[in-house]
Amino acid sequence: MFERLREDIANVLEKDPAARSTLEVLLCYPGVHALLLHRTAHGLWGAGLHTLGRWVSHLSRFLTGIEIHPAARIGRRVFIDHGMGVVIGETAEVGDDCTIYQGVTLGGTSLDGGKRHPTLEAGVVVGAGAKVLGPFTVGAAARIGSNSVVVKTVPPGATAVGIPARIIVEGADQRREAQAAKMGFSAYAVTQGGDDPLSIALHRLIDHVAEQDRVIEQLQRELVRLGGERPTPCEPLDASVLNRMVE
């Protein structure tokens, strides 16, 4: 138990620049406290002491604001940063070296028994406020953007953003993630230029239509110059206004 605690403290010191000492982490980081209490609750649950395990889990929720069901499986060096409002369901599995920020829910969408909650493979980062709902897998080293709602499998190394979440796997994003990996950590699952893919698509469509309008206007002027009649003009597209509307 003490070895796991040392790992947790070292992990916080590595990932959080606000952490200044081992004593500060031990006394002031609710994520560390929640993991320590969860190991106790999980052990009691595994021994068949379900009510006592749930009571320890409830005590942990009261003390830390982090709710982890005692049956959930949590790996090594998991970092729950800030932590207030985090909920991890009964059949959830969190792999080694994952990072979970405040307000995250690893929840279920079914009332049936069996596997109902997600599995996070090693190295996943789940941004603040994200909801990962259902019995699917988030692949190793994937990133879940803040406030995203994920309801389907996320491939390893991908970034999921939006409501419902869409997968970003473009080359530019992969290069950014590779650079972030070299730096050691990608906080809050945020990447430069990590806009919602739907927003990017709308911007591109607006730009495309604006360019078509420009070409049509040139053709109309050339038609008039050659003696033809100028068609009745339609209301011009204001691309700048539309782009601001979808930002």
Note the overall shape.
elongated
For the secondary structure, the number of strands is 15
Q: Write down the Rg.
A: 24 Å
Largest sheet: 6 strands, mixed
Order of helices and strands: HHHHEEEEEEEEEEEEEEEHHH
Oligomer: single chain
Report strand %: 5-15%
- Give helix % range: 40-55%
**Helical/strand content category:** alpha/beta
- Average pLDDT over all residues: 84
Task: Characterize the structure shown.
With 247 residues, this protein is α/β, with parallel strands linked by helices. Helices cover 41% and strands 14% of the residues. It contains 7 helices and 15 strands. It has helices at 2-15, 22-28, 30-46, 50-64, 171-183, 197-225, 239-245; strands at 67-68, 73-74, 79-80, 87-88, 93-94, 99-100, 105-107, 119-120, 125-126, 131-133, 137-138, 143-144, 149-150, 159-161, 166-168. A 6-stranded mixed beta sheet has the order 3-6-9-12-14-15. A hairpin with a 4-residue loop joins β14 (159-161) and β15. The longest helix is centred in the last third of the chain and has 29 residues, at 197-225.
